[in-house]
Structure to design on (593 residues):
């Protein structure tokens, strides 16, 4: 299947095939190497081969340039389906009041805002239940309610961490527009070296971010470190399509339509070319599952959505 | 699966860059990002595209240019993706003319780095160079705002369209048209007749949509007939080596080309926002 896929790409992306042939098969290699940032060690940037130091800068530039139109482009490219994927991620997470979430590469805040709304909805439901249950109380029970001084319940909190200042700016602006103020923090940080202490968070999410990280294994190790014991790792990412017909159509759409959309809507062809190429470079579901297990997570599972265009991987720190 | 691959070849979904020895960059502009001209890239900034991509780009660019007139890059993209035949015809016209052939060989560029505006301003008033510098100052435009060519799959044609873009401001000077919407539409009409580029034709046809009724009246009654007549009568504007003609008086240059003065008073330089 992998061989067939790369042949399809060979035909469709005629200009990329030379690079794919010239550079060593880096699809899986660099991600699993326990490499340090030695200059001269090569990795992939889409279908290009670059040094590891260069990749970080180039990815930064890509997101700096797409930040303002990021949400609009997401809606255009996925025809709004990315909203459903993110909603499904939240359903899988099923947070309750008191959950502490770390959303890495969460730039424009899509996951964070959904988390806040989910918790709010839950709080509201809980309050409604309480109100209903208090309808037919006796006077004695009502007076008891006033006597019970309840301490403030644990507040849920979300930290949005992103390496890119521009993406965070857009996220903060969105938060202002939507009116989210409490329980939200914005931190500039690198997924490979998180600026947080060990055992701090209940849930760690990374949505459509991990394929842009230079050393995925380091990011996974950091995720393991900052999670509390019992904490959950959730990753929403583009993955391998399991249906061959849909795979062809998907490749066609990705390589023919998406860069054109990027040029017309955002005036940026190259960033969206990088985006579709980086999706092809990311390991498929099973392999990524193994990488997560290597980092120490247990009970690792994955769920493919939309015939495998995206997948949600989940693991626990036990 | 095999059918799909055959279909994708039929629909021309693979880009068809002219793979051969990639010719060296036509000017000294260095490449950002360090990508070299090789691997099917014919010139700095070249993005090879398949015919399907060109069609989608042309349609998208046309819609976006109408929706948001400030997206000049979309007009440029439209020109590049639809202009193949017109560019070939233009290039052939240039080859047949001695001055045009010299331009094709030497590949001069009109950029701030190659242009000395201060020197142009010191030229005698009424000379072409002085008028051009004056036009840039009054309208507050710079010769460097032209986007580089990306989607043309032939290196010489990429230069031709780049030259056409860089000559555009000079055309404003020659025709005495300001850079407001009306002036741009008139220049587009002139260019449409001269070059035959689909982008110019579309711009000429759809540009007037955004004009007020009064301006539209002036346009249709006076300016368009004048632009069309001049476009047909004058020499091909791409065949002039402008860089060698800065000292030439503008009047003499206009006579040589066969361009008459615009019908309304030449207000292009004093009242740039009116007309």
């Amino acid at each position: 299947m992998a061989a067939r896929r790369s042949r399809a790409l060979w035909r469709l992306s005629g200009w990329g095939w030379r690079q794919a042939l010239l550079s060593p098969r880096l699809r899986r290699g660099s991600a699993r190497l326990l490499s340090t940032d030695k200059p001269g060690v090569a990795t992939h940037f889409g279908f290009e081969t670059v040094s590891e130091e260069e990749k970080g800068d180039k990815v930064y530039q890509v997101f700096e340039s797409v930040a303002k139109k990021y949400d609009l482009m997401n809606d255009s490219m996925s025809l709004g389906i990315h909203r459903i994927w993110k909603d499904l991620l939240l359903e899988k997470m099923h947070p309750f009041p008191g959950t502490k979430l770390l959303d890495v590469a969460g730039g424009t805040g899509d996951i964070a805002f959904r988390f806040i709304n989910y918790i709010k909805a839950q709080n509201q439901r809980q309050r409604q239940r309480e109100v209903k249950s208090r309808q037919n109380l006796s006077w004695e029970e009502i007076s008891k309610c006033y006597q019970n001084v309840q301490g403030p319940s644990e507040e849920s909190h979300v930290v949005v961490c992103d390496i890119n200042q521009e993406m965070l700016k857009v996220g903060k602006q969105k938060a202002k527009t939507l009116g989210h103020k409490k329980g939200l923090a914005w931190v500039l940080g690198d997924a490979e070296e998180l600026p947080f202490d060990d055992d701090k968070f209940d849930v760690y999410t990374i949505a459509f971010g991990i394929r842009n990280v230079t050393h995925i294994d380091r990011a996974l190790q950091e995720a393991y470190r900052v999670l509390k014991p019992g904490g959950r790792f959730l990753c929403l990412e583009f993955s391998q399509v399991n249906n061959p017909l849909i795979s062809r159509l998907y490749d066609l759409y990705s390589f023919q339509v998406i860069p054109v959309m990027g040029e017309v809507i955002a005036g940026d062809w190259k960033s969206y070319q990088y985006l579709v190429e980086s999706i092809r470079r990311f390991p498929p579901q099973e392999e990524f599952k193994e990488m997560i297990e290597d980092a120490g997570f247990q009970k690792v599972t994955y769920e493919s959505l939309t015939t495998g265009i995206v997948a949600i991987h989940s693991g626990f720190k036990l | 699966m095999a059918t799909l691959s055959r279909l994708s070849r039929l629909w021309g979904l693979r880009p068809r860059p002219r793979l051969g020895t990639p010719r060296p960059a036509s000017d000294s502009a260095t490449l950002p990002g360090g990508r070299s001209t090789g691997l099917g890239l014919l010139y700095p900034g070249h993005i090879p595209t398949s015919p399907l991509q060109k069609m989608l780009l042309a349609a998208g660019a046309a819609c976006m240019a109408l929706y948001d007139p400030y997206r000049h890059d979309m007009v440029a993209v439209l020109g590049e993706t639809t202009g193949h035949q017109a560019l070939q015809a233009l290039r052939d016209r240039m080859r047949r003319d001695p001055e045009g052939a010299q331009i094709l060989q030497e590949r001069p560029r009109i950029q701030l780095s190659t242009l000395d505006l201060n020197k142009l301003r010191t030229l005698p008033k009424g000379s072409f160079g002085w008028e051009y510098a004056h036009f840039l100052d009054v309208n507050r435009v710079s010769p460097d705002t032209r986007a580089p060519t990306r989607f043309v799959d032939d290196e010489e044609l990429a230069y031709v369209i780049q030259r056409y873009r860089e000559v555009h401001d000079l055309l404003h000077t020659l025709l005495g048209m300001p850079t407001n919407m009306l002036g741009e539409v008139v220049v587009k009409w002139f260019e449409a007749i001269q070059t035959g580029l689909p982008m110019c034709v579309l711009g000429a046809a759809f540009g007037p949509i955004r004009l007020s009724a009064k301006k539209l009246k002036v346009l249709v009654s006076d300016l368009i007939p004048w632009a069309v007549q001049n476009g047909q009568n004058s020499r091909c504007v791409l065949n002039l080596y402008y860089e060698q003609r800065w000292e030439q008086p503008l009047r003499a240059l206009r006579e040589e080309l066969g361009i008459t003065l615009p019908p309304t008073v030449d207000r292009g330089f004093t009242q740039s926002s009116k007309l």
Chain B touches chain A at residues 1, 4-5, 8-9, 13-17, 33, 39-41, 47-48, 50, 52-53, 56-57, 60-61, 63-64, 71, 73-74, 77, 150 (CB under 8 Å).
